[in-house]
Amino acid sequence: MKVLKFGGTSVGSIASLLNVKAIVEAIPAPVIVVVSALGGLTDKLIATAGLAKDGDRSYVDEMDAIASRHFDIISAVVGEELRPGVTDRISELLSELKRRYDGVFLLRELSARTLDSIVSFGERMSSVIVSAMIDGASLHDSLNFIKTEKWFAKNIADQKITSEAICTEFEGISDRAVVPGFISTDRDTGEITNLGRGGSDYTAALIAAALDAESLEIWTDVDGFMTADPRVISDAVVVPHMTFVESMELCSFGAKVIYPPTIYPVFHKNIPIRILNTFNPQAPGTLITDTPLADDMKVKGISAIKGTAMFSIRGEAVCNLPEINTRTFNALARRGVTVFIVSGPDNSGEFSFAVAETDTAPAKKALETEFAPELSTGGISGILIEENLATIAVVGEGIREDARLGPRIRNSLLRDSIHVVASSNGNSDTTLTFVVPLPSLGRSLKIIHALVV
Ligand code: ADP
Ligand code: ASP
Ligand code: MG
Fold first, then answer.
1. What single-letter DSSP state applies at residue 320?
2. Which ligand lies nearest the alpha carbon of 304?
3. Number of Cβ atoms within 10 Å of the Cβ of 347
């Protein structure tokens, strides 16, 4: 059995929905189809919540536009027989959503909980429409079987409980099952949560892994995983094959094609992933498996994280690197901060690492607490933070075997007067990383892409 996931643009218009119908109906049942909200709707739901919170009455007009968009689509893609029932169900969901917005407007207050509930309507509505559009399809509500737990400020999937619940939900399935992506409920409180922006990919992966699916197909709006974001690098090309590790590296360094946590569950079960284009279903796409193929491209691509903050710890205490290392990483991990590039110490006795800019405040706090004794005695003379940076990853299995590639990239950037703030000397065999000033990111990507692809 296959699990297919269709993203926002794939379910965003009448024409694309008709492609989805044709693609799914061509696959013999059983099959599981995970859908995102209509393209752009999640952003719209969030922005509308902001209007209501600010006391701006135009949230009502936005609500009307959301309703019209859904009803127009229903008239065009749902057969006459099912149309009244679908219209009623969508009307119910829209009324419920309107009540949430009215509450926010009255109280001028928008809690994270309320926002999670508001954004859930995107997938709840799209899945009703898609399930009515596809021949012989049934609707399965992921609020019942995708379960999350709290992890710092985030909700993360409880994989064990979720996997068991998925097995129960789909036991003996023989038809085409449609499932809303992204949305979930808290395993302890039952409140509506979600798997994070772009999380429908993850819903599909959790289902594929729990049911030992034969493959996970991510249907999107490009011909496959490309050597770079095609919106940034116009001559990026499709990569026919890459490994799980390569895709994981590219995605955790910002390639938006797959939501990063998606890859772990299917990698663990060795379930191949295919990236395919809803708008060009004949294109071969990208296949992702566990081992490299003989004719694989050497460099699979480059990706970038825009908001990067570089921390540098200075002082005598840095001489005891193993201790500083361990204490730094433990202190950061306790606050849920992930470190993604480490460099040094260099001759100046400085130890540096990068974190996502959104983690700057908790990282600073963690380090100041951890190193309070050294900071007071002068063993650590300072913790410096440099922001407005970007991290670029160049990815390919065995990339480090070519010892000249890193220096070549650095030199090419330097020749173009781009200051490389840091580069990785970590232990990944698959990835080279470079931190550059954010304003030079576009230029850096073009230079590196031209050099390595
Ligand atoms: P969906 O709504 O289908 O989940 P996303 O917008 O999340 O789609 O992801 C697909 C988009 O990812 C593409 O339209 C493309 O602009 C962007 N993208 C970024 N990096 C890459 C890459 N290396 N290869 C292909 N697409 C990429
Ligand atoms: N609709 C959600 C988002 O826009 C989830 C997804 O599309 O995967 O982030
Ligand atoms: Mg996506």
1. S
2. 1
3. 6
Q: How far is the CA of 7 from the centre of ligand 1 (A)?
A: 10
Question: To test ligand 2's pocket by mutation, which of 16, 36, 41 has the most ligand atoms within 8 angstroms of CB?
Answer: 36
Report which of 303, 260, 301 is spatially closest to residue 397, judged by C-alpha positions. Answer: 301
Ligand 2: does its nearest atom lie under 6 Å from the Cβ of 36? yes
Expressed in angstroms and rounded, the spacing between residue 236 Cα and the centre of ligand 1 is 12
pLDDT in tens, the chain (453 residues): 999 999 999 999 999 999 999 999 999 999 999 999 999 999 999 999 999 999 999 999 999 999 999 999 999 999 999 999 999 999 999 999 999 999 999 999 999 999 999 999 999 999 999 999 999 999 999 999 999 999 887 899 999 999 999 999 999 999 999 999 999 999 999 999 999 999 999 999 999 999 999 999 999 999 999 999 999 999 999 999 999 999 999 999 999 999 999 999 999 999 999 999 999 999 999 999 999 999 999 999 999 999 999 999 999 988 888 898 899 999 999 998 988 777 766 666 788 899 999 999 999 999 999 999 999 999 999 999 999 999 999 999 999 888 899 999 999 999 999 999 988 855 678 999 999 999 999 999 999 999 999
Distance 201 CA to ligand 1 centre (A): 12
> Is the distance from the beta carbon of residue 257 to the nearest atom of ligand 1 less than 6 Å?
yes
> Residues 6 or more apart from 4 whose CB is under 8 A from it?
23, 24, 27, 31, 32, 33, 34, 204, 217, 219
Predicted TM-score (pTM) of the model is: 0.95
Report which protein residue has its CA nearest ligand 2's atom 6.
Answer: 198
Tell which residue, 75, 69, 60, 64, has the closest CA to residue 41. Answer: 69
Nearest CA to ligand 1 atom 19: 229
Residue nearest to atom 27 of ligand 1 (CA): 229
Pairing of strands 31-35, 176-180: parallel
Does 289 sit in the ligand 2 pocket, CB within 6 Å? no
Find, among 368, 362, 361, the residue nearest to 383 by Cα. 368
Q: Which residues pair with 220 in a beta bridge?
A: 277
Q: Which residues contact 50 (CB under 8 A, 6 or more apart)?
A: 110
CA of 220 to the centre of ligand 3 (A): 8
End-to-end CA distance of the chain: 35
Return the H-helix or E-strand segment holding 287: strand 286-289
Residue with tokens 């380090």: 367
Does 231 contact ligand 1 (Cβ within 6 A)? Answer: yes
Q: How many residues appear in the chain?
A: 453
